[in-house]
Q: What sequence folds into this?
């Protein structure tokens, strides 16, 4: 077999192995290692490239953002800041049709700014928001759908684990990726709120619900008490990065210390909880490091096989325009989203398309935002739909089936697709803060 045939076969093999349940880094690493061995008929070369991939991943300074932001997100969840911001949002939207849904979106957007995890958001707001919506006779499918849809904000609004992973794969600045994620994240949150308002206005039966008039307004003192802690975190962490006072690594360390201090002062964490957060941080960090290492050797294998160049030559020969290249890219990501998780999609697809995008003079930061938003649609689509599975498992309510969760999340997946199209059409939206 020629190198290009080996490369194409390896890509197909990786997708099949992941779909069959093989751990993603193992599928990436083993197939890439064997492919390099076969292409060059040199076992020592394959081993040396593997060593280089491991060394590059471990020694990268910005990799320290992974454990620091992960730990901060876990501590903030334990401190109950997500529930606090939801209560404030719910009070503000209480008289609007679908107000709890809008409050959930708003609270998720704020929560995402300090956790960066869609799974954490789905878990927290399944416990906080869905039961209250059901108590006020909201449509169960709407209740779980709005939580599933808004949970993806955790992977778009910085700090985001997926933006960090993309920055390693595409060799872009983590700080630039964080800044680029703000406007698209806020756009998506606004689009969700607009969709809920539209349904409340023109299809109220879809939302359901009854009046909240008996609910008292929160006093300004209560609002301040519940919002100041998370506001302080956002200002310190993201403000420090955007003003240049802190590097992403320093911001992660500062945010972790501040979040831990808040959790201790609020008596939301003890030594056992602290130890559990450390262990979970270690597990998540090791998993991401393994992913990045596997992605590194995978990218080297594709380069040696000449797959990106062959793909570029094919598209050039076929004279595909920018529109069609992005169309195929989005369709591919949505298709893979029905089979794979977001990290897998980024690690498999981005190395294939980066060599095509860069010569076109397009921003790789913008391309990263498009990639993450496109891949995140997969969190809401069957059969994988990780956020939907998390919501179902967290609720453990016999009245709501997994089918209900997927059906409820579908309109929000469509809204995501519309926002993605807008971001592709107007790249300046993603680069607004950077320019």
A:
């Amino acid at each position: 077999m020629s190198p290009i045939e080996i490369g194409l076969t390896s890509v197909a093999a990786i997708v099949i192995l992941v779909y069959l349940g093989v751990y993603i880094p193992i599928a990436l690493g083993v197939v890439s290692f064997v492919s390099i061995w076969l292409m060059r008929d040199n076992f020592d070369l394959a081993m040396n490239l593997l060593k280089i991939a491991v060394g590059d991943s471990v020694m990268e300074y910005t990799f320290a953002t992974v454990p620091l932001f992960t730990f901060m997100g876990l501590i903030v969840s334990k401190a109950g800041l997500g529930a606090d911001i939801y209560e404030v949002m719910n009070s503000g939207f209480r008289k609007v049709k679908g107000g709890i849904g809008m409050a959930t979106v708003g609270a998720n957007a704020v929560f995402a700014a300090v956790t960066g995890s869609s799974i954490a958001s789905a878990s927290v707001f399944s416990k906080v928001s869905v039961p209250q919506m059901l108590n006020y006779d909201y449509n169960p499918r709407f209740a779980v759908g709005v939580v599933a849809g808004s949970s993806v904000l955790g992977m778009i609004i910085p700090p985001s684990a997926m933006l960090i992973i993309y920055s390693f794969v595409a060799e872009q600045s983590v700080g630039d990726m964080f800044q680029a994620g703000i406007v698209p994240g806020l756009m998506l949150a606004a689009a969700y709120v607009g969709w809920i308002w539209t349904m409340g206005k023109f299809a109220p039966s879809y939302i359901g619900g009854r009046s909240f008039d008996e609910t008292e307004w929160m006093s300004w003192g209560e609002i301040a008490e519940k919002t100041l802690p998370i506001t302080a975190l956002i200002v310190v962490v993201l403000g420090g990065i955007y003003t240049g006072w802190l590097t992403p690594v320093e911001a992660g360390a500062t945010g972790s210390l501040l979040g831990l201090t808040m959790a201790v002062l609020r008596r939301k964490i003890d030594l056992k909880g602290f130890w559990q957060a450390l262990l979970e941080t270690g597990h998540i960090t090791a998993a991401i490091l393994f992913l990045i290492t596997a992605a590194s050797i995978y990218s080297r294998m594709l380069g040696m096989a000449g797959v990106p160049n062959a793909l570029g030559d094919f598209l050039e020969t076929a004279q595909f325009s920018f529109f069609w290249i992005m169309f195929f890219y989005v369709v591919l990501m949505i298709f893979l989203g029905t089979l794979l998780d977001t990290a897998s999609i980024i690690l498999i697809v981005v190395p294939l398309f980066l060599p095509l995008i860069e010569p076109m003079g397009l921003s790789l930061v913008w391309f990263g935002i498009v990639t993450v938003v496109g891949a995140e649609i997969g969190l809401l689509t069957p059969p994988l739909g990780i956020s939907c599975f998390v919501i179902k498992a967290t609720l453990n309510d016999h009245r709501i089936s997994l089918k209900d969760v997927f059906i409820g999340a579908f309109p929000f997946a469509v809204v995501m697709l519309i926002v993605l199209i807008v971001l592709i059409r107007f790249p300046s939206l993603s680069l607004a803060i950077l320019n």
